[in-house]
TrEMBL record:
<dbReference type="InterPro" id="IPR013132">
    <property type="entry name" value="PseI/NeuA/B-like_N"/>
</dbReference>
<protein>
    <submittedName>
        <fullName>N-acetylneuraminate synthase</fullName>
    </submittedName>
</protein>
<dbReference type="InterPro" id="IPR051690">
    <property type="entry name" value="PseI-like"/>
</dbReference>
<dbReference type="Pfam" id="PF03102">
    <property type="entry name" value="NeuB"/>
</dbReference>
<feature type="domain" description="PseI/NeuA/B-like">
    <location>
        <begin position="36"/>
        <end position="272"/>
    </location>
</feature>
<dbReference type="InterPro" id="IPR013785">
    <property type="entry name" value="Aldolase_TIM"/>
</dbReference>
Amino acid sequence: MSVTIGSHQIGGTAPAFVIAEIGLNHNGSVEIAKQLIDVAADAGANAVKFQKRTPEISTPAHMRDVQRETPWGTMSYLEYRYRVEFDRDQYIEIGDYATLRGLEWFASPWDVPSVDFLEDLGVRAHKVASASLTDIELLEALRATGKPVILSTGMSTMEEIDRAVAVLGTDKLVLLHATSTYPMEPNEANLRMIPVLRDRFPGVPVGYSGHERGLQISLAAVAMGAVAVERHITLDRTMWGSDHAASLEPGGLSTLVRDIRIIEEARGDGVKRVFPGEEAPKAKLRRVGA
Ligand SMILES: C=C(OP(=O)(O)O)C(=O)O
């Protein structure tokens, strides 16, 4: 089964859907967001993704007053959350720019008003961050939109995933295996969860959302059949902000997309055949009658 987002199929025999997660790596700047959209388009990614919050709802109570050093001075975590949110006009500007560059764009809403905000902008899909997988009110609001939903499964138990899938339904659902450590070490990748999720939710396309350094683990996920890959992107890994270090820079994203396409071609169809290119070596090397 596959899920359609705009002109893209996710799942079945379609090429892996590559999502460049801008998240908050624009640091509140529309100009940086546009540069990151350029990076995603130039690399051949299929979509860019943002994170949309209503800070007074989505910021956990115990985090709100925590003081934080930021490029804009010392401020509470709540103030920082406001500082990096885009308003409606800014979303229209970056959404239009993504469309102009041939990319799908969508976001992970972190609370119900953010679902309404994104719906009003006419997004074609929604993403659920791993942190929101147990937010049943949010999942119900997303189900009610009737749009495709991409659900990340980091920091979750299988029972929690079962509950989330039951709320969202399976007809327009894409699951992403994820481990929510930043950056993620290889021993926590557990890529064998990709076939496990595929078997547990038959017909639901399963992809991978990565927070590791480098490319190997995301590429291995594609070799294991991931139908979508999401990676954070940044202009520069040393920029200020919590997600930059576990993000790909422009060259890394280009290499990722290039190598994903090579791996997809190399996976083949599993039907044993003698390829035309093998005929000459066969004639030369195989003893007749052996
Ligand atoms: C944090 C997010 O996703 P993930 O859990 O896949 O990293 C997100 O989509 O905002």
